[in-house]
Fold this sequence. Notes:
Layout: E1 5-8, E2 17-21, H1 25-36, E3 41-45, H2 48-57, E4 62-66, H3 74-83, E5 89-94, H4 99-108, E6 112-115, H5 120-128, E7 136-139
Parallel strand pairs: 2-3, 2-4, 4-5, 5-6
Antiparallel strand pairs: 1-7
Amino acid sequence: xxxxxxxxxxxxxxxxxxxxxxxxxxxxxxxxxxxxxxxxxxxxxxxxxxxxxxxxxxxxxxxxxxxxxxxxxxxxxxxxxxxxxxxxxxxxxxxxxxxxxxxxxxxxxxxxxxxxxxxxxxxxxxxxxxxxxxxxxxxx
Length: 140
């Protein structure tokens, strides 16, 4: 029997603030639960315009930005945030997985690219990159 490594945070770990930007309610619900299980404090926006407004008013450790959204798409929202001097971490969260899609996201100002569907280990490492406390790995 093989041990399964599962990422968890200690209960006293710092709670990273995540702004989850996606227009798909199901993805938002599922991702929010997954991130909260890793001790993240998650807020959400359903379009790029709302995300820009929230990001300039409230501090986040990480913005997970979907690319295809109504009102203002994720690339345009990222460009606008960067033009306003936003220096926080923005991760492109998208189902587009071609190499050129990744480069478009980076060129728009995203710090990294996180393809959907989200992998549990990748999510944990993403949060660990903005959290001051390390992820603990438990074997089951």
